[in-house]
Amino acid sequence: EPEVTQTPSHQVTQMGQEVILRCVPISNHLYFYWYRQILGQKVEFLVSFYNNEISEKSEIFDDQFSVERPDGSNFTLKIRSTKLEDSAMYFCASSDRDKGTEAFFGQGTRLTVV
Amino acid sequence: EDKVVQSPLSLVVHEGDTVTLNCSYEVTNFRSLLWYKQEKKAPTFLFMLTSSGIEKKSGRLSSILDKKELFSILNITATQTGDSAIYLCAVRRGAQKLVFGQGTRLTINP
After folding, report:
1. Residues in Cβ contact with B31 at an 8 Å cutoff, skipping those fewer than 6 apart
2. How many whole angstroms separate alpha carbon A67 and alpha carbon A79?
3. Among candidates B64, B71, B65, which has minimal Cα distance to B25?
């Protein structure tokens, strides 16, 4: 069964460093998302991406964050100058249509900023 | 502000019991309501509901949406230890964004 894959599963980085989280969405999907879940808190929407551009983003998704689809298969989230409060599980998701379908989630990348 | 509230936050039952999980919402531009099961990491999809009053079923799980009262329930009958997980309710607001509730942690004791 097709699935969303994320790498790495766990990343530890020093405060102030840049990290890139990688995702391979399901191959025929057109809509891509990043969500995050701080330990013990809700899953929060960060950004959605369609047709090579951001279609919606939350207040969390400030200038520190950027997304890219560098080729036909990968979808990346870059966090510049990481802060301690960026420590969270980051989930990538994809869907094949916008309104009428569920989003499928990857297994997540646990980011720990020390 | 968009809100999705789940109750209870935590529930412990014995194997074989039936449970009902609740989700209420206040979201602008509602499109659909989704239930996910989160065991270790990734939320896995259970149901998507768009119309009021139509029950969706999958094995021992079922769910229904009430768009007038703005809530949904997820029922699990004859619970098994493998049903232990966090159950997430999410509302699709507008075209794409999902707004999640805080989840219900369900524990099934043998």
Report:
1. A99, B50, B91, B92, B93, B94, B95
2. 9
3. B71
List per-residue pLDDT tens for chain B, 110 residues long: 889 999 999 999 999 999 999 999 998 888 899 999 999 778 999 999 998 999 999 999 999 999 999 999 999 999 999 999 999 999 988 767 899 999 999 999 99
CA angle (B64, B67, B69) in 5-degree steps: 100
**Could you tell me if B101 and B88 are in contact, meaning their C-beta atoms sit under 8 angstroms apart?**
yes
Please identify which residue in the block is written with the tokens 């530890």. A12
Q: How far apart are CA B90 and CA B35, in angstroms?
A: 6
Interface touch B96/A55, C-beta < 8 Å: yes
Record: contact B41-A102, CB cut-off 8 A: no
**Furthest-apart CA atoms within chain B: distance in Å:** 42
> CA–CA separation, A49 vs A34, rounded Å?
9
Interface residue ranges in chain A relative to chain B, Cβ cutoff 8 Å: 4, 31, 33, 35, 41-45, 48, 50, 55-56, 58, 89, 91, 95, 98-108
Positive or negative CA dihedral for A6, B2, B91, B9? positive
B34 neighbourhood in chain A, CB within 8 Å: 102-103
Torsion angle defined by CA atoms of residues A39, A43, A44 and A47, in that order, rounded to the nearest 10 degrees:
110
Query: What is the rounded distance in angstroms from the CA atom of residue A60 to the CA atom of residue B26?
Result: 21
